[in-house]
């Protein structure tokens, strides 16, 4: 009697066929994802390279949107040139800060304020004034006098402007008084300061895009004593 011997099948088990199909499906999914990523990168690069549209701001502060496609070449050139130009508000802010630092000679803070004022100057002016102050021992003299100064900026006017330079006039009222004796009357001065400011690239150390390259002042009125208390500058 013959026995039945099971015949081996030449095809792989069904589970292995399923694994093969699944692996092929994963390959297609990975390929599709790579293509989508490449397309996303391409679209992002195109959008990043696209120039922005323009928003025009009028004198009253009202903004008007202008699509870049309808702007003229002259307007676009003007906007590109104005990107580094400080506004009038920036000029006033920068000048006021500099004048306060340069003129607020307090015996207790002169080292910090004078150092900060020097940092707002151009290199040539900064080096020259630092050498002069060191040679004349100005900081030591101010510390020994034990005085304080109250500065009130009355007016700042932009008198002349070129592409790279600004000429600014500041009118200041300064009152010097004793640090040790508050009852003593202060000495009041009315000063007019002429400054030349240079437009520079905006950086972390030059956020306003300005630096002082020259400044001098002339006393307008003879100093007077003033017993009234004078508030600090604006």
| CATH architecture label name of the domain at 87-226 | Roll
Task: Please describe the biggest sheet, giving its number of strands, its sense, and whether it closes into a barrel.
Answer: 4 strands, antiparallel
Order of helices and strands: HEEHHHHHEEEE
C-alpha-based Rg, rounded: 36 Å
- Order of the strands making up the biggest sheet: 3-4-5-6
Q: What is the fold-level CATH name, i.e. the topology of the domain at 87-226?
A: Nuclear Transport Factor 2, Chain: A
Query: Counting H and I runs of at least 4 residues, what is the number of helices?
Result: 6
Apparent shape:
elongated
Q: What value does the average pLDDT take? A: 74
Indicate the proportion of strand residues: 25-35%
Regarding CATH, which class of the domain at 87-226? Alpha Beta
How would you characterize this protein structure?
This protein has 234 residues and is an alpha+beta fold. The chain has a domain at 87-226: VirB8 protein (Nuclear Transport Factor 2, Chain: A), CATH 3.10.450.230. Helix content is 40%, strand content 29%. The strands form 2 sheets. It has a 4-stranded antiparallel sheet. A two-stranded antiparallel ribbon has the order 1-2. Helix 3 (88-103) runs antiparallel to helix 4.
């Amino acid at each position: 009697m013959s026995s039945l011997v099971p015949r081996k099948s030449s095809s792989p088990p069904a589970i292995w066929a399923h694994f093969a199909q699944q692996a092929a499906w994963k390959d297609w999914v990975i390929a599709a994802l790579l293509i989508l990523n490449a397309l996303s990168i391409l679209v992002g690069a195109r959008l990043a390279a696209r120039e922005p549209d323009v928003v025009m701001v009028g004198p009253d502060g009202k903004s008007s949107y202008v699509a870049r496609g309808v702007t003229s070449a002259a307007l676009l050139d003007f906007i590109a040139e104005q990107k580094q130009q400080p506004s009038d508000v920036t000029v006033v802010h920068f000048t006021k800060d500099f004048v306060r630092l340069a003129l607020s000679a307090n015996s207790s803070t002169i080292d910090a304020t004078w150092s900060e004022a020097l940092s707002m100057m151009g290199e040539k002016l900064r080096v020259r004034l630092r050498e002069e102050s060191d040679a004349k021992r100005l900081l030591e003299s101010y510390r020994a006098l034990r005085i304080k100064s109250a500065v009130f900026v009355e007016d700042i006017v932009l008198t002349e402007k070129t592409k790279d330079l600004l000429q600014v006039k500041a009118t200041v009222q300064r009152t010097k008084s004793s640090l040790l004796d508050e009852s003593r009357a202060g000495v009041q001065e009315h000063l007019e300061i002429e400054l030349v400011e240079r437009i520079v690239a905006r950086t972390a150390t030059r956020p306003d895009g300005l630096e002082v390259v020259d400044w001098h002042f002339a006393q307008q009125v003879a100093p007077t004593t003033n017993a009234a208390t004078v508030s600090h500058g604006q």
